[in-house]
Design goal:
By secondary structure, the protein is of the alpha/beta class. It is built from 13 helices and 13 strands.
Length: 375
């Protein structure tokens, strides 16, 4: 029996950065791994791992029903051609439309809820529609993995899950790739934002806090790293204005963020919603203090290794930054060490991989047993 696994995702960077080790171990175990996603810079490295690539255009934030219908048709044709033994889906549209196609074609599938997205915090009609769609899509799911408890509780409360589900520690962290680094020396305190430049990621709160802190504390630096969301291009001019006044330093999109994390004393994640913040986990693995919104997907990464602030509350963020600045240097260093210890204890990526491999192997064994019983 050819062991074919199909992964449906919406971008190459996320798949490569957060699922690469799972793909490697599946291939090592003799699985034929197909990946379906739009083309990007990380597709060729994924192909070199041994993955079979299927180009699948997806409008991540588009709401055009005809475009989404076309995506479903593409998924249907793809599954009929590949005939995978199991399908793994990540992010909202693959979870919804990929799952519906798997349901119709009677193909086993595993979902990963990487975050509920902004649709559930908007109009009531949109929320009701999404709840209905998820109920249909996840009805026959082999397993639904959740990256934070709040998302899991929300879906259970609205009866969107009817089968097996499990909580996993986000995407986990590759502890060999993100190694502990000595804490930067005291002097100029460096705070860094890493993520897409968009309102939902809290860029406005970060900018406002940077301005207030820089006006009061000259021995600070605020870095911004990430690409500007095309639909919110107006942030380019705003950031340029802040940079001209020396409130922030904008470094654009960076393929390797580790060096920026290493140089920072504290990573700030002011998101409005997250599945599980990979940036916080990676920064914690390097041994850095954290300041983040008190929301699901962020608060799980922080105990005594940083601060949480009320989401969207600039004044609270400013207070937490000041609290950090006033800490003795030794306590800042201790925070960084506690970050690393927490990640080692709770967020090792191998924990996630083992859960996937266990579930995939169990599904295929059950299917083989059913086939053998019919012979």
């Amino acid at each position: 029996m050819t062991k074919k696994v199909l992964l449906l995702a919406n971008n190459d960077v996320g798949l490569y950065n957060f699922r690469r080790e799972l793909l490697e171990q599946l291939i090592e175990q003799g699985y034929e791994v197909y990946i379906s996603l739009p083309y990007g810079d990380k597709v060729e490295p994924l192909k070199r791992l041994g993955c079979i690539y299927i180009n699948t255009p997806i409008q991540r934030r588009g709401t055009n029903p005809f475009t989404d219908l076309k995506l479903m048709i593409n998924y249907y044709r793809m599954i009929r051609k590949v005939r995978p033994k199991i399908v793994l889906t990540y992010t909202i549209k693959p979870n919804l439309y990929g799952s519906i196609v798997c349901l119709l074609s009677r193909t086993p599938y595993i979902n990963n809820i990487t975050g509920l997205g902004s649709g559930f915090s908007g109009k009531k009609l949109v929320t009701k529609l999404l709840i209905f769609m998820y109920k249909v899509a996840l009805k026959k799911s082999t397993m639904v993995f959740f990256q934070n408890k709040a998302d899991m509780d929300f879906m259970l409360h609205h009866r969107m899950i009817s089968g097996k589900y499990s909580l996993i520690p986000g995407s986990g962290v590759n502890l060999n790739q993100f190694q502990y680094a000595a804490y930067p020396p005291e002097g100029k305190w460096i705070f860094t934002f890493i993520g897409r430049i968009m309102k939902e990621k809290g860029i406005e709160e970060f900018l406002s806090a940077a301005r207030a802190i820089k006006q009061k504390y000259n021995n600070t630096q605020f870095n911004i790293i990430g690409s500007i969301e095309p639909t919110q291009a107006f942030y380019r001019e705003l950031i340029a204005q802040y940079e001209a006044k020396n409130y922030v330093k904008y470094h654009g999109f960076q393929k390797d963020v580790i060096k920026f994390i290493v140089e920072s004393h504290c990573i700030i994640q002011p998101s409005h919603h997250e599945g599980m913040s990979n940036i916080l986990l990676e920064s914690a693995a390097v041994g850095r203090a954290l300041i983040a919104s008190d929301i699901p997907g962020c608060r799980e990464a922080i105990d005594d290794n940083g601060y949480v602030f009320s989401v969207g509350d600039v004044n609270d963020l400013i207070r937490k930054i000041e609290d950090f600045i006033h800490l003795p240097y030794e306590k800042k260093v201790a925070m960084g060490k506690m970050s690393r210890q927490k990640v080692e204890r709770e967020f090792d990526r191998q924990i996630v991989i083992n859960k996937y491999l266990q579930e995939i192997n169990e599904v295929l064994q059950n299917r083989k047993a059913m086939t053998d019983s019919l012979i």
